[in-house]
Amino acid sequence: MEEADMVIVGAGFAGLAMARTYLKLNPTTNLVILDAGTSIGGVWARDRLYPYLRTISQLGHFEYSDFPMAGNGRYDVSAGEHMRGEVMQRYLEDYAAAFDLTRRTRLNAVVSEAEDKGPAGWLLTVQTTTNDDDDDDAPQQQHQQQHLLAAKKLVVATGLTSTPSMPTFANQSTFTAPLLHSRDFGRHAASILHSPTTPTTTTTIAVLSGNKSACDVVHAICASTNPSTTVVHWILRASGHGPCWMAPARTSAQNGSTLVEELITTRFNTWLASPCIWGAADGFGGVRRVLNRTAWGRGLGVAAARAAQEGLEKRNGYGDGDEEVARLRPWGDAFWIGTGRGLLNYGEPGLLGYVRQGRVRVHVADVDGLGPGPVVKLSDGEEIAGVGALVCCTGWRHEPSIRFVDGDGGGDIAAELGLPHAYDPSADAARKAQAALVARADDEILSALPRLRDQPPPATCPPHHLAAQRAEVRAAIVAERAAATAEDDDDDPVRSLAQAYALYRFMVPPSRARHHHRRTIAFIGCTRTASTALMAQTQALWLSAFFMGRLPHLDDKTNNNNKNDNDDDDTIAYEAILHARQNRWRHPLGFGRRLPDFTHDALPYMDLLLRELGLPRWRKRCSFLPSLFPSLWREVFEWYGPADYRGLVEEWAAKEEDLGVVVLRGGGGDDDAAVGDEEGIDGVVGVGRRRGRRKAAPLFSATNGAFLVTAAVLGAAMAVAAGAWIGTGRRR
Q: Contact at 8 Å (CB) between 293 and 448?
């Protein structure tokens, strides 16, 4: 049976970052990457691309810090441009090749089950698909083979967009047109977008759902087809959550205005935009306390959110009289939605332009059934005939695609790992203990962040979107959704938590965080965030330190003389639940009830990880004496991007080298070397670890100056807040 030191499942942004980082620190590791796709890239894999698919980020914003895209002619992208899908796929393949990850990657490999073998690691059941390429002229035959792979350490990097959530419909078997999920649109795009037509025929394509994927598919269809022969029927489920918020790429139409994506990693904006229980990890807890716990501070945040939403509605023209565009106005308040939004990253005329041109008909109705023939039947009585394809952009199943079982009886251990699992009401003792932790977490969140007490109603279809005769349908939908929400969260919060992720730092099973012999599994990329690349590389470094036993708050017993392991386990379990419940209260109209879903909270989350790694969180420096003084203005009002984290792995390794643990040589791949006891480097506690003399803290360190900086920023924030408040009042 094959064995590996580490197996990473997933070859997207997170998986590649994990492999690159761990190998940089442990170059002798036998590391294997498994991916179910036909190419490297994850969501940017080759067979998931289609025409006009682009990133929401522009050049310099969506990349690894140690592998910049700008200036490389292979990518054919200029400043101010969104990267095309094929560019991102090429970039990730180049990244894998540059750091010797390609030869370690096995494609078309599906991991169906992982069996816990205790300290020995995990036994993976892998199904591999291969093609018979012996005869180029004959049709290729696929062969599937199942084998076992033993992994001392397992990192699951499959993310949250791997398993499609595909609906079923009444009489689906009688539907004669292609029926597919948006994941497979790239594979079928050529046949769907270029179906034969004549001057007297029209191609009709139906798209279901109102999320960003649906926006991209609708735009791709309109941009790729003849306006005189193709019409798109865009179906927004009346029982669903409605269309997503879509913002222009910049805050105003003027050249040089701020990119919207830069606001979410600008500290000042994170203070105003998002109450967050881990927010104080950014070192500005005093500012956050004032903004969250005072009436005027909360009022400022509410006013800022209201002004931003009203400005967005005006720029998109939801109230300009076009009925089709009006139907695309989101149903819920943008403040309560996490990543269920997007940017209008399209060229002219753009998505809304195509809608105004009459290329798109927007329906607010459920799909009652399909067929017979190429017919889609809607709940408002309308039938869409002659459909060439129905593309369901209906999202993803949020639980992992791998079944995790114990090594004794093969029972499911998802609950023990902190993963979504089947609710077991019979486990009274565990249920009561968890209920107490949930109640404690909710009380802490709502006490510290009073703004979150005023929860929004479920995002349901506005009355004006349904005909009067359908009013009873809407009433039934509202009642059903409200009842489901009450059952999930208010009457039984533990039942709700069972359906959600409750990982420590969104990466590690809480029960295994402090016990070195049980540190055999972790999850990376289990967060929905707009800061994908930054999060991936930061999580990768934290997890590398975790596996190597180099996280002081988990590994340094000298800081926990008055605590026993049970105390620490309880603290870790509580923090995992606390952060999971933060997502539930912060983004109830997004995915927060089920998984980590945040935009503005990504920066303080990365600050938290950097602090635990012993690295500076404040990375902006002034032009004079940059090694001594962080620049207050830049730290507060400039956005954080990949360049700010360049050299992060080397920085951490240099710090650890002072303790005699790791020395790096070379730039990556097989050229890297480590000095010291190999087992100690790879994380076996008590072997090869030498405690060296710690360096004295610098006089002007971020930690020592936190109080002074916080006081200064608080004064500045109060002045700015007063001006903004007055300005808002005058505009009204």
A: yes
Return the closest-CA partner of residue 467 out of 382, 380, 384. Answer: 380
Cα-to-chain-centroid distance, residue 343:
16
Q: How many domains does the chain have?
A: 1
User: Per the domain annotation, does 477 fall within a domain?
Assistant: no
Question: Is position 492 within any domain?
Answer: no
Helix pair angle (532-547, 648-657), 10° resolution: 20
At 407 the pLDDT is 86
The letter for the amino acid at 580 is A
**Residues 599, 594: Cα–Cα separation, whole Å:** 16
Residue 243 CA to residue 222 CA, distance in Å, equals 18
Q: Which residue do the tokens 């599906």 mark?
A: 110
| pLDDT category of residue 621 using cuts at 50, 70 and 90 | confident
Residue at 448: amino acid letter = A
Do the Cβ atoms of 530 and 600 come closer than 8 Å? no
693: pLDDT strictly greater than 50: no
Position 531, amino acid: S
Pairing of strands 31-34, 521-523: unpaired
Longest dimension (CA), the chain: 82
> Is there a domain that residue 454 lies in?
no
Distance CA 393, CA 370 (A): 17
- Helix 706-731 vs helix 295-316: angle between axes, to the nearest 10 degrees? 50
Give the pLDDT of residue 630: 62
Return the sign of the alpha-carbon dihedral for residues 110, 115, 116, 120.
negative
Mean pLDDT value across residues 91-96 = 98
In a domain, 571, yes or no: no
Q: Under 8 Å CB-to-CB from 381, ≥6 apart: which residues? A: none
Q: How confident is the model at residue 681 (pLDDT cuts 50, 70, 90)?
A: very low
Q: Is the dihedral of CA 82, 75, 31, 671 positive or negative?
A: negative
Distance CA 362, CA 322 (A): 11
- In the Cβ-directed half-sphere of 524, how many Cα atoms lie within 13 Å? 33
| Predicted pLDDT of residue 699 | 32
Residue range(s) defining the domain that contains residue 218: 172-244+340-392
In sequence order, the β-bridge partners of residue 360 are: 232
For residue 372, whether the previous peptide bond is cis, meaning omega lies within 30 degrees of 0, is yes
The predicted-structure confidence for 633-670, as pLDDT tens digits, reads as follows: 899 999 999 999 999 999 999 998 765 555 454 444 44
Q: At what angle do helices 13-25 and 85-98 cross, to 10 degrees?
A: 20
Cα within 13 Å of Cα(57), Cβ side: 20
Query: Can you name the residues that pair with 31 across neighbouring β-strands?
Result: 6
Tens-place pLDDT, residues 287-333: 999 999 999 999 999 999 999 999 999 999 999 999 999 999 999 99
Q: What is the mean pLDDT of residues 75-101?
A: 95
Helices within 414-470 (DSSP H only): 414-417, 428-448
Q: How far apart are CA 650 and CA 540, in angstroms?
A: 13
DSSP-derived secondary structure for 265-280 = TBHHHHHHH---TTGG
CATH of the domain at 367: 3.50.50.60
Residue 689 binned pLDDT confidence (cut-offs 50, 70, 90): very low
DSSP, collapsed to helix, strand or coil, labels residue 648 as helix
